[in-house]
Amino acid sequence: MENTNLKTPADFLQKILGKPVYVRLHSGIYYKGTLACLDGYMNIALENTEELYEGKVTNSYGDAFIRGNNVLYISPA
Questions:
Q1: 12 occurs within a structural domain
Q2: DSSP labels, 4-67
Q3: Most buried residue, 13, 41, 66, 76, by most Cβ within 10 Å?
Q4: Could you list the residue range(s) of the whole structural domain that residue 63 is in?
Q5: Are the C-beta atoms of 74 and 23 separated by less than 8 Å?
Q6: Is 57 part of any domain?
Q7: Any idea where the Sm domain is (predicted)?
Q8: pLDDT tens, position by position, for the chain (77 residues)?
Q9: Distances (CA, A) of 5 to 11, 15, 25, 30, 69
Q10: pTM of the full predicted structure?
Q11: Domain count, the chain
């Protein structure tokens, strides 16, 4: 039985490119920003970025680059 509604991670990432996302790091810190680009190593570039810890904004950045090995997950904002 084949399910044609299955999506690959690449499909998901293409869908959220250019849109607001949350990025959670292994350290528990979240970043919220517009997903500008990412590569095969999950290195992420965000625009209009806010750093959140325990639900509170702790810093704001214009652009931010997050190294892929620190990323736990990415979700739409």
A1: no
A2: TT---HHHHHHHHTTSEEEEEETTS-EEEEEEEEE-TT--EEEEEEEEEETTEEEEEEEEEEE-
A3: 66
A4: 17-76
A5: yes
A6: yes
A7: 8-77
A8: 455 565 788 888 889 999 999 999 999 999 999 999 999 899 999 999 999 999 899 999 999 999 999 999 999 99
A9: 11, 15, 29, 30, 29
A10: 0.86
A11: 1
